[in-house]
């Protein structure tokens, strides 16, 4: 996995995969008035394709709008090829703080690309990869990035299939990362094994405040491990969501009484 990330990084850095764009901030067919608005701070490509033409527009938009901090591609369907274009843009950018990519169909290959982006980013605070078809392999790649990144505070991965094997690596990475505050792993086919490793992580992690684990396959055993660590060893977690798991009424009551 690290080798694959290095190969993708070489492609992006050398421009083997890339685009050409000028530095002009003058209005054109591709760069309309809203793109050259210097006060623009949010731009949305949701429910439209994102390819080379759109990438060229976005490159010039970023160059001409120093206040642009948020990009929204929800439901875009860009896939892996679009992820490559976007990653090259992010490599040169130091202002984007929020990147919303839910339901963009980037898969594990795209997750590897954005793990590489996280390795380099000094500005990205929120990354939403919900519903992107990411499995344990993509989760492992993102875990590698979390070992290095000390900027990202919100990672949203709900409605994927990271599973226990992916969560094991994410939990291990977070033992040394106190920057991430919100981790959304709802609906990711996580069971008691994943819950156990998250509990071990929370014994030493003092940064995470919001952990979302709803709609998984966590049972009583996993829930008890999480409950014990939050009750006895962790004073940082303020939100721990476990609804729609199989934790039983007693554990549900205990979490409710704890105010989580």
Structure, explained:
The model is unreliable at 13-23 and 27-31 (pLDDT under 50). The protein starts with a helix and ends with a helix. The protein has helices at 2-14, 52-64, 79-91, 107-120, 136-148, 163-174, 192-204, 220-232, 248-258, and strands at residues 42-44, 70-72, 98-100, 126-128, 154-156, 182-184, 210-212, 239-241. The radius of gyration is 19 Å and the shape is elongated. The chain is of the alpha/beta class and 260 residues long.
How would you summarize the topology of this molecule?
Layout: H1 2-14, E1 42-44, H2 52-64, E2 70-72, H3 79-91, E3 98-100, H4 107-120, E4 126-128, H5 136-148, E5 154-156, H6 163-174, E6 182-184, H7 192-204, E7 210-212, H8 220-232, E8 239-241, H9 248-258
Parallel strand pairs: 1-2, 2-3, 3-4, 4-5, 5-6, 6-7, 7-8
Helix pairs in contact: 1-4, 2-3, 3-4, 4-5, 5-6, 6-7, 7-8, 8-9
Span of the ends, CA to CA: 36 Å
Percent strand equals 5-15%
What's the arrangement of strands in the largest beta sheet? 1-2-3-4-5-6-7-8
Number of helices: 9
Characterize the largest beta sheet: strand count, sense, and whether it forms a barrel.
8 strands, parallel
Share of helix among residues?
Answer: 40-55%
Q: Overall mean pLDDT score?
A: 85
Cα Rg: 19 Å
List its salient traits.
single chain, 260 residues, alpha/beta, 8-stranded parallel beta sheet, 9% strand
Summarize this structure briefly.
The protein is of the alpha/beta class.
């Amino acid at each position: 996995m690290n080798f694959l990330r290095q190969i993708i990084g070489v492609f992006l850095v050398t421009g083997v995969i890339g685009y050409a764009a000028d530095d002009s901030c003058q209005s054109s067919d591709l760069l309309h008035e809203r793109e050259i608005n210097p006060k623009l701070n949010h731009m949305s490509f949701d429910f439209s394709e994102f390819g080379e033409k759109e990438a060229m527009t976005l490159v010039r938009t970023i160059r001409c709008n120093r206040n642009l901090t948020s990009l929204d591609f929800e439901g875009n369907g860009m896939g892996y090829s679009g992820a490559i274009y976007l990653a090259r843009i992010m490599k040169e950018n130091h202002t984007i703080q929020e990147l919303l990519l839910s339901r963009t169909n980037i898969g594990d290959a795209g997750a590897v690309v954005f793990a590489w982006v996280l390795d380099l980013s000094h500005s990205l605070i929120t990354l939403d990869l919900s519903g992107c078809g990411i499995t344990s392999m993509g989760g492992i790649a993102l875990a590698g990035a979390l070992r290095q990144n000390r900027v990202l505070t919100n990672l949203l991965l709900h409605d994927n299939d990271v599973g226990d094997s992916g969560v094991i690596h994410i939990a291990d990475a977070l033992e040394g990362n106190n920057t991430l505050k919100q981790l959304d792993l709802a609906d990711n086919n996580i069971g008691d094994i994943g819950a156990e490793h998250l509990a071990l992580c929370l014994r030493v992690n003092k940064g995470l405040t919001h952990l979302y684990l709803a709609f998984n396959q966590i049972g009583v055993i996993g829930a008890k491990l999480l409950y014990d660590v939050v009750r006895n060893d962790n004073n940082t977690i303020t939100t721990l969501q476990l609804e729609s798991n199989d934790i039983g009424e007693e554990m549900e009551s205990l979490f409710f009484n704890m105010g989580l």
